[in-house]
């Protein structure tokens, strides 16, 4: 039986509801997933959001850049007994976000070739130079790449914060213990926020984990890892869980040749 990750302990920092696919693929390759979620997400239903409920029909496009944005936006609509007007088109980043949108009976009207906000903005405005009013759905820790681009282009837009990202510290001792005992062979991160959370929970530990191979699902996350001092950062050519694990397998198969 081919088990290229046999005996390798891989840290997974994704939330409980999102970690299953990554855990399964590591286990299929013979690895040992060490799952300790560092972040949780909850609906942000602040009262200042409510006026947008009566303005939804005014927007031409809605921008959704993560599955959490999709999930909590529709959860917010459902809570207030509203629906997204049929003529509002959706721009999304990534096939995972696209699939999440499909689960709510909507299709993506625009999907950029590259799963990056900066590329999304560039491709979108090439195709739709006068898009009308835009609604950007975000979390409280979302980056400001798209809002900054919208302002630069002087297009009308509103931002709607529909979820909050919370740091989980209950199991942080697991991570510091594994690091200090040398029980981790690799780290995985799927967002800049998980890297920031990792740095927070390991602060003060005798072992930082910065020298461990660090597998990141996209260039934005990889840049954050490099900024925070990780020395061996890897990003798969396609920003998916499957390709992240393939890259991990390639790394450990060739470990003896380094």
Task: Explain what the structure shows.
The strands form two sheets. The protein has a five-stranded parallel β-sheet, sandwiched between helices. Strands 3-7-6-4-5 form a five-stranded mixed β-sheet. The model has no long low-confidence stretch (mean pLDDT 91). It contains nine helices and ten strands. The protein is of the alpha/beta class and 258 residues long.
Placed side by side, the strands forming the largest sheet appear as: 2-1-8-9-10
What's the β-strand tally? 10
Strand content: 15-25%
Extract low-pLDDT stretches: none
From the spread of the alpha carbons, the general shape counts as elongated
On the 0-100 scale, what is the average pLDDT? 91
In short:
The protein has 258 residues and is α/β, with parallel strands linked by helices. The protein has helices spanning 20-28, 67-79, 95-102, 117-127, 145-152, 172-180, 192-201, 219-227, 241-253; strands spanning 9-12, 32-35, 39-43, 61-64, 89-92, 134-139, 157-167, 186-189, 213-216, 232-234. Helix 2 packs parallel to helix 3.
